[in-house]
Every structure is written in C-alpha cells, then in structure tokens.
Automatic annotation (TrEMBL), chains A, B, C, D, E, F:
Gene3D superfamilies: Nickel-containing superoxide dismutase. This is Superoxide dismutase [Ni]. InterPro entries: NiSOD_sf, Superoxide_dismutase_Ni-type. NCBIfam families: sodN (TIGR02753). One of its GO terms (molecular function) is nickel cation binding. It comes from the Bacteria. Pfam families: Sod_Ni.
Amino acid sequence: MKLFRPTIIVSAHCDLPCGVYDPAQARIEAESVKAICDKYQANTDPEFRTRALIIKEQRSELVKHHLWVLWTDYFKAPHFEKYPNLHQLFNEATKLAGAGGSKGQADSAVAEQLLSKIDEIAKIFWETKQA
Amino acid sequence: MKLFRPTIIVSAHCDLPCGVYDPAQARIEAESVKAICDKYQANTDPEFRTRALIIKEQRSELVKHHLWVLWTDYFKAPHFEKYPNLHQLFNEATKLAGAGGSKGQADSAVAEQLLSKIDEIAKIFWETKQA
Amino acid sequence: MKLFRPTIIVSAHCDLPCGVYDPAQARIEAESVKAICDKYQANTDPEFRTRALIIKEQRSELVKHHLWVLWTDYFKAPHFEKYPNLHQLFNEATKLAGAGGSKGQADSAVAEQLLSKIDEIAKIFWETKQA
Amino acid sequence: MKLFRPTIIVSAHCDLPCGVYDPAQARIEAESVKAICDKYQANTDPEFRTRALIIKEQRSELVKHHLWVLWTDYFKAPHFEKYPNLHQLFNEATKLAGAGGSKGQADSAVAEQLLSKIDEIAKIFWETKQA
Amino acid sequence: MKLFRPTIIVSAHCDLPCGVYDPAQARIEAESVKAICDKYQANTDPEFRTRALIIKEQRSELVKHHLWVLWTDYFKAPHFEKYPNLHQLFNEATKLAGAGGSKGQADSAVAEQLLSKIDEIAKIFWETKQA
Amino acid sequence: MKLFRPTIIVSAHCDLPCGVYDPAQARIEAESVKAICDKYQANTDPEFRTRALIIKEQRSELVKHHLWVLWTDYFKAPHFEKYPNLHQLFNEATKLAGAGGSKGQADSAVAEQLLSKIDEIAKIFWETKQA
Ligand code: NI
Ligand code: NI
Ligand code: NI
Ligand code: NI
Ligand code: NI
Ligand code: NI
C-alpha cells in the first residue's frame, strides 16, 4: 500500500459522452471481488458467507458493466484494427466476472485472473490515450 | 494528460466490508460532472442540453453516494476525533453535488469546487491509510 | 396498533428540491429490518434464512440512503450549529445500518438500536420544523 | 404544519414478507410530485424545468411501485371480496401516476387527484388493519 | 425448441407511452425463474443454491414489474369491463411471483403455475390487440 | 400487426446461468426507442419532448445491456470462431444504442438501423440454437 497517494487524473464514463473513461472503475470493483473471495475462504460462518455471495454478485456485475462501457463507448474502429485481440480480451474479461468466473466461484485465484485481464485492457487503454 | 498511466492500487467499497475504499470513485464521477458542464456551456442544442442535464443528475448522485459510503463506512470514530472538520467537509462536499451545487447548476466553476472538496477529503483519506 | 390511522402530512425528498423530507422513510425501512431479524431468529429453514439475508441487505441500504439524504439535503449549517452532535448522530445511525450493524447481524436488538437512533434524529428534525 | 410530530408506527414492505406495509410510502412520493408541479408552474427557467421533469418522472414511478406492492402483497382475496372496488381504485391510482396522470402533466390539480386516490386506498388499508 | 425462430414483432413498455407492450417480457423472466428452480433442485452445492436464490429473487421481481406495467399502463377501462376477471388474474399472477409463490419457493411446479397464469393474461392481451 | 399471437418459447438471461437467452429482450427495447423517436418528431410540445428524451435514454441503455449479456454470457468461443464478424456486430449494435446512435439522436432512421443490427444478431443467435 502506498503511504501517500497523489491526486491523479481519474476518469469516468457516460453516454453524453463526457469523454472521461478509466479502467480503474472496473479494477476497483474487481479488487473488491478478490477481497470478498479472500474473506469468504477465511470465514465459515454461514451468515457471513451468504452476505459475501450477495455482495460478490453485485461487485462482479459492476465489473462487467464498467468493462462493457469501455468496450462499446471508449474504443473505436481504429483501436480494434490496431489491437486485433481487443474484442476477445474484453469478451474473456467479462466472462471472467460472470457465471464461469467470479460470480460462479468464490475463488481468489479466479479473481486474480480477472484482475490480470483488466490490467491487459488498461495497458491498451493508456496506450491509446498516448497516441 | 499523462502519457502512460501505471497500474495503481485502486480500491472500492461494499458493506461486507471488503475493506477496499478509494476516493477516486467519487472523483471520477465529479470529473464527469465537470466535463458535462463544459460541454453544456459550449452547446446550445436543446436535445443535447436536455441529455446533459439528465446525465449530470445521475453523475452528481453517484458523487454523493460514493462520498456517503466513505463517510459512513470507511471513517471511524478516531478519524473524526483527529480531523474535527471531517464531518463538515463531507457535508459540504455532498451538498456541492446536490441541488445547491452541481445538480442545480450546469456551471463548471461549481464542478471545480466539488472537485477541490473531494481532493481535501482524499488527502485526509490517504493520511489515515498511512497511519 | 391504532384502530384507524388518520391521514397525516408525510414528506419525501429529492434534489429538485421539492422541499418535502420525512424521517419516516428511514424508519419504515428500519422497522422492516427489525421484523426480518425477528423472523430470521424464529425460522431455521435455510431457504428462508438466505432470503431474509438478501432482503435485510436491501432494506438496510435503504435506511442508509434515506438518512444520508436528510443529513446532506435537509439539514443546513445553522442546524449543525444548534445541534453539535447531529453529525455524529447521523454517522452512528448509518453505521448501525451497515456491516457493523443491521447488515452484519440478524439481531433484533441491533435493529432496535437503529430504530432508537433514527428516533433521536426524528426528534431533532421535527424540532427544526417547529423553529 | 404540526409543531411537533410524534413518533408513529410506520411500516414498510418487502417480499420476505416482513409483514410491514404502509400507504405512507406512496403518499410521501405523491406529496413530492405535487410539490414539484407547484414549483414547475412557478419557475420558467428551462434548466429548472428540465430537472423538475426528470425528478417528477422518478417520483411518479415510485408512487406506482409502492401502490403495486400494496395491491399485490398486502391485500388478500377476502379484502377484495369485502371491497369490490379495490382493484379499480388501485388501477386508477397507478394510472394517475403514469402517462395519463402525473408523469404526463406537470399539473398540481392532477397531483391532488393522485393524493386523494391514495387517501381512499389508505382509508381501506387502515380499516383492514382494524379488522 | 424451434430450429429457427423468425423475427417477430415484439413489444415493450414505457410511460411516454411508446405504445409498445408485450406479455413476453414477463414470460421471459418467468421462464428464467422456472429454469432456476429446476437447477436448484438438481444441485445441492450450498454456494450454487445461495446464488440461485439471489437471482430467483431478482427475476421474480421483474415478472411482477412487467405484469404491473401491463395491468396499469396497457389495459384500459373497456378491457376490464369486457374481461371482468382480469383484475383478479393479474393479482393472482403477481402474487405467484411473490413471497407466496416463486420468491418463497424454489419449486418448479409453482413456476409452472406462474407461467400458466401469464399465458392466460397473454391470451387476453392478444385478443384485445385483435379488437 | 398479427391478429393473434401464439404463445412462443421466449427466453431470458441471468448469470446463474439459467440458460435462457433471447434477442427479443433487446429488440423489445429497440422497438420502444423507435416508437419514441416517431412520437418525438411528431410532437413539438417541450414537456413531451423532454420526457421522450428521458425515456429514450433509459430504453437505449436497456438495449445495450441486453446485447452485452448476449455477447458475454450466451456466445462462446466456438461461436466467435464460426462467425468472425460477431464481435464487430455486437460492438456496432451497442454503439448504435449509445451517444452516436439512438441516445444522441431522436431519429427514427437511426432506430431502424439499430433494429436491423439486432436482427442480424438474432439470426445468428437462432442459427446457433439450431446447431
Ligand atoms: Ni461520460
Ligand atoms: Ni467493499
Ligand atoms: Ni424532494
Ligand atoms: Ni417487507
Ligand atoms: Ni413504452
Ligand atoms: Ni439466466
């Protein structure tokens, strides 16, 4: 954990469009999913576990939503030409937040895979911002 | 705009709690609010303006929500003792995203004030993470 | 239970603002939370208990939301000067509807504490309406 | 406006069911709708008016939702036998919060009709509580 | 399952109104509820079952919502005169998607009853479209 | 308009997964978007137009959501191999429901394009069901 986190340019999304996008929104929710998996595995109390599953379902859905917004609203045809695997990357990332991924399993390793996939997308995102 | 943005530790919130919090979530939406105000002032098309007001209402609500979560769920009694103005800061920040602030006015200067207030909160947040 | 309940002035909230606020909205959801806790303790059927936790999570969130709205949108600087503990009261009340309170525990006693805290807020609310 | 409002038994709804219902939830939102109509008619600023229409749409939807919950979840077959016009009353009340009513018109008189219809329902509701 | 499904005129709802309505929206969610019940009964894994209950709760709520919209927004006074049992049909159908029906029970037979009731409504709906 | 519409097998989606999917959900909302555009162009009343824009924004978002679910949750790697343009088709369709499409313009021709694109997807969907 960084001792002090500088104010950074963060970004959002909407369909005006405001023009502000940031993969951090998806990553934030995926971090939450991973922390929930960790806590789930460490705690066998049935009430806690039920609550963890309820919340993990919501956070995973938010991951999917934030990724879908980037895929549809931020990335344009030239990006998909330059990064031919970008469609597949997003499709795999959103699947990793669904039934076959972090929704279906309370498994920290799956959440890690989701985080890695989001980081791959973020890398491309920030490259396109450079361009 | 930074040329390349490194992957950073971002954080989220939920009421498990997952333990992940980050003022970036509020800031992201406030950046969006400001961009919407800028575009609103630069475009007099009535359809565009109506859409801008619809979306600004939603984004401002998200700012309020993310701030409320930090205020209630992240900050604890010892923090409020150490930072006696913290309650007021959050109250002012959330008001700045409401009817008397960015909801009620499509004014970039108001959105800037909201961003500054969020940055004051973020500074305290990251100091408490250090402690 | 009253035999006949007269039509009373009830009130709401929004960010126009419409000017209508009422602590009853938070109390209604907290009453629901308490009833859910009571039923949870009296029924060990696992399907019922899972459903109770799902719904208690939602109702607790609504309690938080309605309280946040009052704190940010109804109460103004002069109120906070006159009632110096008002910030803390709201902070404690919303925490009581969160992970450390009625979300984290299916405990009728916790729900009772939440109701009492809301009643303290309601008392102040109606005093300010008098003023 | 009453000088002091006593704590009253308020009630909610959910599908556990928690067993707590109260027509106040619908009335609260309808009061808000009426206040919005009043303010709309008194203010010709286009930004204000657009915001009023956005919020009136949401509040009217909440009226419909709270009424639907009462109609489906609180009232049972014997109630509908005893009050043969109850179905029609709910149907008219929810229509009054829709396109042909408070959604479609920013008209305080329409909002008053909606409030009256809700009061008719509330009267029956509290009679059934007596029974 | 049909081998190829032709593009058909489907319909939606909103409160403009757009004029597009279709009982298929309720049926789609009820089909989902039934499939969830089937899977629930066939799988005793506690994580799966908790997830099934979470999702069944949401899908059942959507069934209720889509039916309520038809009842309030599509059907008019002359329809209720022509089909005197229409109010009761909708009331029973929405109850079948609530606590006493598909929310309260993970029972495929209950979901089947819900589907049948929706089909009764759909039959009347399409008859009124003919008229 | 068909005189009588037979009960058909409709389908839904969720992330259990229930296994029920149907492009009709996206099409239903797109039909609504088109009807809203038609009515918007035929009616210059400012209140009506504002309401139309509010609702068109919501319906367009639902189109995007239903398409995203199909793209991520229904279609699997073998489908994307067999239909190499499927990623692009979904990306274009969701863009057509966004700022550059039916959200940004109250234009019936744009809504028609959206409907056509959804029909292209539906054709592939039903082919894969055949397989
Ligand atoms: Ni945006
Ligand atoms: Ni969290
Ligand atoms: Ni209000
Ligand atoms: Ni309830
Ligand atoms: Ni419609
Ligand atoms: Ni499903």
